[in-house]
Amino acid sequence: MQFIHLPNWLTIAVDIFAWYSIHLSVSWLARRVPERFLAEKAYWFRTRDWEKEGEIWQEVFRVRSWKPYLPDGTKITKEGFDKTHLKGFDMASLEKFALETRRAELAHWAMIPPAGLFFFWNPAWAGWIMIGYAVLFNLPLIFVQRYNGPRLERMVRRKAERSEINQRMPHKLSRKHKWVRE
Questions:
Q1: DSSP string, 73-97
Q2: Which helix (H) or strand (E) holds 181?
Q3: What is the pLDDT of residue 118?
């Protein structure tokens, strides 16, 4: 299916430039996706029952052990939301982080299909290597988002429930560390 024949050195240079462009373009486009599209109730972002609220990714792939070593594109582009660690435990920070995990998941899914374009100027064997690269590079990042997302959403739900309980039942901690009704 190769339509364009280039010298090997130029093919390698085009491959590198193409991947760099794809990563930057998809990241740029993902940052412009409206937040309403990334709503947690959207079908494609919902956690499936078989994911066990994200825990399947830890059970099968041990995500927690290697996720700190993954790159965060915001370090390269100097734009976007840094997802290396949680900035705060207030409701706004948790909701923003959860939303940005969905944005990151969308971006990494979107980076896989363009690998098919590499067949146009690469021999078939190299095109398959490019597809392998796209899958192997992006799936671990998708797994991390599928692991983190439900955990963050659970934290948001618990915080909302506590807030609702606190509004209904005002109380304070006494000096003896017992809850006392006001």
A1: HHHHHS-S---SS----SHHHHHHH
A2: strand 179-181
A3: 97
5-36 pLDDT per residue, tens:
889 999 999 999 999 999 999 999 999 999 98
Burial classification of residue 94, based on how many CB atoms lie within 10 Å of its CB (0-12 exposed, 13-18 middle, 19 or more buried): buried
Label residues 44-58 b or e (16+ Cβ within 10 Å = b): ebebeeeeeebebbb
The residue among 49, 160, 24 whose CA lies nearest residue 98 is 160
pTM of the model: 0.81
**At 70, is the secondary structure helix, strand, or coil?**
coil
What amino acid occupies position 118?
Answer: F
Instruction: List, in order, residues 6 or more apart from 179 with CB less than 8 Å away.
Output: 171, 172, 173
Q: Reduced to 3 states, what is the DSSP secondary structure of residue 170?
A: coil
Three-class secondary structure assignment of 5-48: CCCHHHHHHHHHHHHHHHHHHHHHHHHCCCHHHHCCCCHHHCCC
Render pLDDT for 34-77 as a digit per residue (tens, 0 to 9). Answer: 998 888 677 888 889 999 999 999 999 999 999 988 887 776 66
Please report where in the chains the tokens 């491959």 appear, as a residue: 15
Q: Among all chains, which residue has been given the structure tokens 């797994």?
A: 143
